[in-house]
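Q: My collaborator sent me two sequences in one message, no labels, and asked for predicted structures for both. Can we handle them in order? The first one she listed is below.
A: Yes, handling them in the order given. First sequence, followed by its structure tokens:
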Amino acid sequence: MTLRIAGESDGGNVRVRQIHADGAELEILPDHRSGFYQWFNFRVSGAAGRKLTLRFRPAWTTRS
């Protein structure tokens, strides 16, 4: 099954930068109308029985 990560849900607070076979790189987005990065919310599917490595980084450190 294909690994999928969704952060666009109501209250979602991550951006998927890249998905790998064994995990993903994610950005934590700032809270609404704030410079704080206090929480994150997302959904992972297609990972049953698999070990994943999820790497998080704040959006301000990522260069596009």
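Q: And the one she listed second?
A: Here it is, processed independently of the first:
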Amino acid sequence: MSYDSIKLEKGLYGTGKSFTASLEELDPTENYKGSPLEGLDAYQRQLKRFDIRVSGAGSSPVEKFFATTDSAALFPEYVSRAVRQGLEEADLLPRIVATTTMIDGLDYRSIASVPSGDDKELKDVAEGAFIPETKVTTQENLIKLHKRGRMLVASYEAVRFQKLDLFTITLKQIGAYIARTQFADAVGVLINGDGNGNAAATSGIEDSSTHVITYGDLVTFWNLFSPYELNTLITTPAIMAKLLNLNEFKDASAGFSFQSSGKMITPIGAELIKSSAVSSGKIVGLDRGCSLEMVKAGDVMTEYDKLIDRQLERAAITSIAGFAKIFEGASRVLNV
């Protein structure tokens, strides 16, 4: 079947897989190797079919999607892709999440292994002797998933003549809102746990009366993580400013790195993340390789019926995700 003869309809949505995946089954990309269409996926070939340009100076107006019933079916996927792009550009989660699990339903129970200090050491085992065990169990409580999103409200008459590259910016902003909210959810789990009695251990600076952070405070905090590695710090803009003004941070090499690349480092080598998701007066430290699991129930979802039949008007764009602690001791909180 050629890409320009495929019948596009709402039935390609809501199949348990993405719209593009459904198109790929009808029009496999591998069939276009060595052709002028190589490098385009099945959805992009449909945009080319209807001469719809979603970016650049020559981008099409919104109404181009609704020129035919077939091309109208492409519009929800355009919305999802633009929102997903904004989400990915603003997403800080890859910097703190160790692994991502995709699930089909809304109920998920993670696993847990809570080794004692003795269990973390691999000792010599004599011949015929008992081999130490590492127990892995399911968590007692389900992981709470949150549905985050925005309602897209616009009349077709208001946006029909707007260029798609401008409309994409608005949709990308919705994705950025979702990304920031999900990051706040993740920080909340790092601090308070996921409902299975695994809140982060909390410590304070040596002289809390002065509210001054010293290099020694950071070293003490870093030393609490053994055998884990403190490689990420998340804190508020105000505390971030204090960290950046530490004398130990302002040495020549650290200053050169910050001024030339904008990448912030600390004397203990941890990556700094500035976020208002952290409560005032707190620094969240973690080993990003074993602290947090992200659980997603599908990708970005749009109400495709409304976007196709009603030509915008009012449609929800959502993403469902939650977070689980992996190893309780891999994240801690420092009160300043």
